[in-house]
Specification:
This protein is α/β, with parallel strands linked by helices. Helices cover 41% and strands 15% of the residues. An 8-stranded parallel barrel has the order 1-2-3-4-5-6-7-8, surrounded by 5 helices. Helix 1 (16-27) runs parallel beside helix 11, helix 5 (108-120) crosses helix 7 (141-153) and helix 7 (141-153) runs parallel beside helix 9 (182-199). The longest helix has 18 residues, at 182-199. The radius of gyration is 17 Å and the shape is globular. The protein binds phosphoenolpyruvate (PEP). Phosphoenolpyruvate is lined by residues 9, 169, 174-175, 211-214, 232-236.
Amino acid sequence: MRKQIAAANWKMNLSHHEADSLLDQLLATEHHLSSNQAVIFAVPAIYIPLAVQKLNGKPNIFVAAQNCHQKANGAYTGEIAASMYASVGVHHIILGHSERREFFAESDTLLAEKTEAVLTIGSTPIFCCGEPLEIREAGTQNSFVEAQLKNALFQLSADQIVKVVIAYEPIWAIGSGQTPEPHKINSIHEMIKDVVQSRFSNIGLDSVLYGGSVNSSNAAALFEEDEIDGALVGVASLDGKEFAEIANILNDLT
Ligand code: PEP
């Protein structure tokens, strides 16, 4: 069933005090999310206990991690396993964000392992894909994204792939204030769903989110598209009013 999601990615931002105030501000907004809608906060790992404690018991509101290690445990100083997040109430994990791919050299092969690790413990990967500017300028974004999906997700089983949330994030749109036209994003989402269906015998994805300079002014036009099932939001998620408004726009969809 289609699942509509507004997900905040705070990245490596905010002091503890600021995180606390932002969560309070967001909690002051009433959402009436239906069972096929969710609002997710991917906060820095160190603020997860704070966010879990504040959001505990709020229906359809979840805390997410921004990354995890591919192994279940071991001598990996500084790393956090998916099961550790699950043990503190976090069952959504962003994987393969373009900043992780670029600054931490995360490859599709590594992301295949991380995706498997997250699914193995019963949590939900929010798998990011998307092309850099030179690929968009060359007009080869579809085959670029298709290769990312094939390399990282095609080893999964049909039972696993249905649990994956995909976030399509053209890298040139992240933090730039530029967004592709909604109908163009819609057609890439269609392609993503087709690629998955072609591999997994017509299994449909519940959610393909768009990420890249989403804000309260452009969210409605994006969410009106049939294949855009929500958004992964960076900068605008650090502003309580902005993100609450984006969540409200999602909430008002029928
Ligand atoms: C992101 O980094 O996932 C993102 C979508 O950022 P922004 O909304 O700032 O473009």
